[in-house]
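Supplementary Note 3. Input sequence used for the single-chain structure prediction.
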Amino acid sequence: MNPLVAKSITVSFLLISLLAFAEQAKSQTGERYEMDGKPVSRAFYEAGLLVTDANNLLRANRNQEASVKLKQAIAVAPDYAEAHYNYGLSMAKLGNSSLAVEQFHTAIKLNPNLDQCWISLGGVYQSAGQIEDAIQSYKQFLTRFPRSAQASQVSNLVKGLQNELGSGSAKPDAQGFGASAPAKAAADDYLADVTKRGTLRWPSDHHVIRVYMRPPVNVTGYLPRYDAIARQSFTDWANASGGALKFQFQSIPTNADIEFSWISDASKLVNKAEAGETRLTCGKFGIVHGTVRILTVPLMSGIAVTPNRIRLISLHEIGHVLGLTGHTSNPNDAMFYSATIGDEWRNLSPRDINTMTRLYAPATASVNNGP
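The predicted structure, written as discrete structure tokens, is reproduced below.
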């Protein structure tokens, strides 16, 4: 390959799906109770009211309060599949994956036609790094609900996960830019995982990277605070580089090294099942330009885009644009191949920091920027 010819690389972020909520319960006059137009017992009706209240709390991200109501619903109506499903959803958002899986399986046993439960089950497995189990859950969804409006996106998820299990074809092709030969391995990092096809980095004489954050125009779901979250994410990675990188934010795109933008149209992303996308242009001496785009709306209804999720996606995509072009299978890493269901603020872990430090250490820089 001609080293003077720039090469475009796409790196991306799988987004897990978790979803939809039970429809509201309603009653008729007297002692006759209905849910979704069907007669039910008083116990199911009362449980349905609790589930409805809990769903509103889940939408507001008041997950602990929602879990209390859902436990009450299960106590009142143990055979109410939707109560188990939504309780599992609350547990997933609170970070209790094992209980979430247990509740999803109970819900499916009671009612295997709960389409969103299959998706959520796959999402929990995916966020825990159990890729094979996630694929099986998503395939069950596709087999049972092939005409679902979400089938295409779930199919894209399956393809992405199969790539993670297989040859690594979902990871960017960095061949031709130097074999991976990092500095002496730290006790706890993942540089080898994210540089399997070669090591990319910004050139050693390019310490100040100019960033243009494109002002959003008609971007649904965008909040002004997202800009501050993205800037903080850039700063955190710069600190992790051990002083090798600094960012300068500018108000015009001219001469920007990185262009960062918010979008609300998933069709603009290469993979429609992703929450963000990074593209790198590389030359003879390393990375010369990068673009980052982050989605501000849910890919599918039911999973809210929150500041916590924007933080996680920002850390991930900025990691890509700085040269961490692959993915890891550890859910605690910023470069984990998937978003997690748990909705909490994330900081860079010691493994993240060690990895970025090694990538920009002089011993790494001396061997990995040219063919």
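Residues 327 and 337 are 5 Å apart (CA to CA). Residues 1-29, 167-187, 365-371 have pLDDT under 50 and may be disordered.
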